[in-house]
Amino acid sequence: MQHSSAGVLEFEALRSVLGRYVHTPLGRTCLREVQPRTDRDWIEETLAETGEALAYVRLSEQAQPAKQGAAIRIRFESLDDPAAVLNIVRIEGAVLDGLQLLGLILLLELGANVRGVLQSASARFPRLARKAAAISDLRPLVREIRGKILPDGSLSDDASVALGRLRREIEKQQKQIETSLEGFLRAHREDGTLREDFITIRNDRFVVPVVAGQQRKVEGVIHGASGSGQTLFVEPLNTIALNNELVRLREEEAREQHRILREWTQRLRPEAGTIAQIVSVLGELELLFAKADFAADFDCVIPALSPPGSRRLWLDKARHPLLQDILRRHNKPVIPISLELNETRRTLLISGPNTGGKTVTMKTAGLLTLMAQAGIPVPAAGAEFPVFDRVLADIGDNQSIQESLSSFSAHITHLRDMLAEATADTLVLLDELGRATDPEEGGALGVAILDSFLEHRAFALASTHLLALKVYGANTTGVLNGSMGFDEATLEPTYLLRLGAPGKSAGLDIATRLGMPPRVIEKARSVMSTEQRDIARFLSELEERIERARTLESDLAARLAALELQEKSLAAEWAKREAAKLKDLESRFDAKVASFDAQARQAMDEITRQASQHKAAEQAQRRVAKAKREMREEFERAVLPPRAESPGVAIEEGSRVRLKGVRDPARVRRKLAGGRLEVEAGMLKMQVSEQDVEEVLAPSQGNSLPRNISFQPAGPTWDVSYREINVIGQRAEEAVEQVDKFLDNASMASVDRVRVVHGHGMGILRKAITALLASNPHVARFYPATRAEGGTGATVAELK
């Protein structure tokens, strides 16, 4: 990514802040490679991995049950950079010392632990587990060496059998020498030969201190003298052989240690490439978790990348991380900013008071863009960025004495280069556009420059105090005006970015706050033209009105939210009451049905006792079923909403009506006394009560006949559903009720023969159906069906 503005936007300082969370040379090596990129796939994958690391860190800080897949906090210990050691390992015949081997073993142990922890959490964190899977498993080699090297780099006694034997022999030899010398000390303790009563070592040999001049009394070898020359260190003659044996054993020990180290180095040599790969992966993982720790500490989010065809630069409550770091040390909050640019509105023109935060706003947008494209979380409540090919910024005074450039010259030179480099995928940041020259010319030049960037379709943020640019922002499609807040009461900036209108510079007000003498301020105000004062007053009033409108909008939103909450509460309360009412009705209905059942059973028992035939009980059972059906229908009419009827439509002769229990519409032939009607339904003519009319239907279009003239079809017609009913699997009571209603409908439809399918079973249904058919007024006769129609599992009834 070309980002000539990275220095201006302090990306290196941001990387230093991120470096606080890196603890090993492995991670610091990876941190040095962190740079913004333009590869969308790399950015998306890196941000996704960082997002998983952030989720892992937040989960590991919570209390979790001990189970498979729990997030265990990963600590990267402070290990030395193994690069130099790996270079030695690759050299044939080279031997690592104990500390170098210990460093590699600790590194491999860390890799094995990280791999195991992340692999166990692969279900929740697949990207981290996939990255950890690149750490090769060298645990057998680690187990072979681990524990045989002490923290100081020396080998433990169990490094080999030979080493352990030699060290035991050395210890035994040392005790023999000490015993011999202790005898020597006892023999010469009183004769003035010894300077002091102790044993020491000189040139790797045990010696005793002898007073200078007395050495003739001692047979042995002198191995040196004290600094004053008053003491000589003598190896007695009878100890020389013992010391010689000790020296030999120590030489053998050194050879054995060298052999062990050479063997272990040879074991590691084929794995040098694998170890280098482990080092690389551990560095990447440490950097990922460093980003996650930074994100958790600075309250960051993982930004989204807008699609190429619908670019969007959106920041919600964004904060400049370096400013946040500084203010946090002083326990001060950062005022966040929110803004949005898109394909239809690509330029934001920020005006407002000096020291009001215009430059910080642009730097925040620029630095957060670089962070996102470097795969670093951004401090904001939400963020979305296009993938820019470069970020170009003209911020600050670029005056150069060596290059003979004035402030204006440097400004124009920089703008010229930016115009040459800008593309549709460029983010441009322009601080104090048109500065350092006449305001009228600077404004005209600024308008032309912004128009040029608009033609390039680049995204741009610019700050200005010039009126021409403020007017340009208000009148140009694709340009949005914004202003930094200013408190008129305290004469201090609020650092709040408000979109939709320009702001006044408030230079004289700020000068007043900063202690400029009042007479100077008054003189300045008097010099200002009337037009300038009017414009300043207009901008001030505009800001006040916008603020009032925002306050009203916020109040309205709060009221609407309260009303919605109240409406939901009332709806819930109404539903609760209706449910309670319906439940009460159902309870009362169930109680009535239970009472009726009890009375019916009592009546049936009485009839059974008094009647001489079983047929009377069957008839009573049918009457009970019919009465229960009528009661249920009455309950449903009382509880359920009524069917839609034609309100206010009178029943006249010739009207088409729908009757209760009749499938097809009927026509009223004539009205009778006592609220009764004579109706015609198909081939059936009957008298019914007006209460049996459920609905008065609209007259048929195109088929109406003159009064007193009716049409009868040439032959009987019926619905197939009136020819057969299947009650298999039902209780006798339910079956009797359904068949009874079925016979009524079949009779009104002029059906002459029906079939009732009741199955074989235990014969209960067949007996109940037989009793019903025997007493039903519509049935002329009935008999078992033929074998083709179901045999004794069905009964055929012929209707009157």
Going across the major beta sheet, what is the strand order? Answer: 10-11-12-8-13-14
Query: How confident is the prediction overall: mean pLDDT?
Result: 80
- Uncertain residue ranges: 399-405, 640-647, 711-720
Strand content: 15-25%
C-alpha termini separation: 97 Å
Radius of gyration: 51 Å
Total count of helical runs of at least 4 residues: 21
Structural summary, described in words:
By secondary structure, this protein is of the alpha/beta class. The protein is 48% helix and 16% strand. It has 21 helices and 23 strands. The strands form five sheets. A six-stranded mixed beta sheet has the order 10-11-12-8-13-14, sandwiched between helices. Strands 18-17-16-15-19 form a five-stranded antiparallel beta sheet, with no helix packed on it. Strands 1-2-4-3 form a four-stranded antiparallel beta sheet. Strand 1 and strand 2 form a beta hairpin. The longest helix has 81 residues, at 530-610. The chain is flat and about 160 Å long. The chain starts with 10 loop residues before the first helix and ends with a strand. The model is unreliable at 399-405, 640-647 and 711-720 (pLDDT under 50).
List the helices and strands and how they pair.
Elements: H1 11-19, H2 25-31, H3 40-60, H4 83-89, H5 98-120, H6 126-132, H7 139-145, H8 161-187, E1 200-202, E2 205-211, E3 220-225, E4 231-236, H9 237-268, H10 272-297, E5 304-305, E6 312-318, H11 321-329, E7 337-342, E8 347-351, H12 358-373, E9 382-385, E10 390-394, H13 407-421, E11 426-430, H14 439-456, E12 459-463, H15 467-475, E13 479-487, E14 492-499, H16 507-513, H17 518-527, H18 530-610, H19 614-639, E15 656-659, E16 666-672, E17 676-681, E18 684-689, E19 693-697, E20 724-726, H20 732-748, E21 753-757, H21 764-775, E22 779-784, E23 794-799
Parallel strand pairs: 5-9, 8-12, 8-13, 10-11, 11-12, 20-21
Antiparallel strand pairs: 1-2, 2-4, 3-4, 6-7, 6-9, 13-14, 15-16, 15-19, 16-17, 17-18, 21-23, 22-23
